[in-house]
Design a protein that fits this description.
By secondary structure, this protein is of the alpha+beta class. It is built from five helices and nine strands; from the N terminus they run ββββαββββαααβα. The model has no long low-confidence stretch (mean pLDDT 94).
């Protein structure tokens, strides 16, 4: 059960409670976490939040493509687009999500899609157009960041129209279409806002 009371599921088929797929193997899921959200900073600290999110994703071996602040059904939220290595295979999995945090819980709408047998075509074609020197760039949220999957211009939204069947394009499009249709339970909407990560517990006295 989640506080999400409605959203446009056109084109999606339910596979199990809270999980749907479409004909292009895009997976949509909704989640509820009855815990203080694990976001590394408050939403009114955007630079700190984005930098910490980028560091966290790299630490897990992936890459943060972008993080944007916005709202879902009028409730402040953060949207993330992430890429991670495909488990047990070549290529990448792209995940897009909205996290809607409140003081003691959160709900998440997530869309994901994986590369198939053919990988790297988008990256190679974009690099050929912009040149290797302009392809890889420092991460805009954490310029000194290293490790994980590299940040590059091939993931920018401006290229989606050139690669309509790429999983990143599909994830962006599905998330953009679905988000305005999401409705939240009023009892969730009136909960106290997220006040930041929980401070670590003090060590026990000797």
């Amino acid at each position: 059960m989640t506080p999400i009371t409605g959203m446009d599921l056109t084109g999606f088929t339910e596979r199990e409670p809270g999980v749907w797929t479409d004909e292009r193997n895009v997976v949509l899921s909704v989640h509820f976490f009855p815990l203080v959200p694990d976001l590394p900073a408050r939403l009114d600290e955007p630079e700190r939040l984005r930098a910490a999110l980028a560091q966290g994703v790299v630490g897990a071996g992936g890459g943060l493509i972008e993080a944007r602040l916005g709202a879902v059904d009028g409730v402040p939220a953060v949207r993330q687009l992430i890429k991670v290595p495909r488990p047990n295979g070549r290529g990448q999995v792209f995940l897009g999500s909205w996290t809607v945090p409140r003081a003691g819980c959160s709900t998440v709408v997530k869309v994901q899609a994986a590369e198939g047998a053919m990988t790297g075509m988008r990256e190679a074609m974009v690099m050929a157009q912009v040149g290797p020197a302009d392809y890889f760039r420092p991460h805009p949220y954490a310029p000194g960041l290293s490790g994980g999957l590299p940040y590059h211009v091939g993931d920018h939204e401006q290229w989606d129209a050139h690669f309509p069947d790429h999983p990143l394009t599909l994830v962006r499009a599905a998330l953009s279409r679905i988000t305005p249709t999401v409705t939240l339970d009023e009892r969730f909407k009136v909960l106290p806002p997220f006040g930041g990560p929980t401070a670590p517990a003090a060590p026990p006295a000797p």
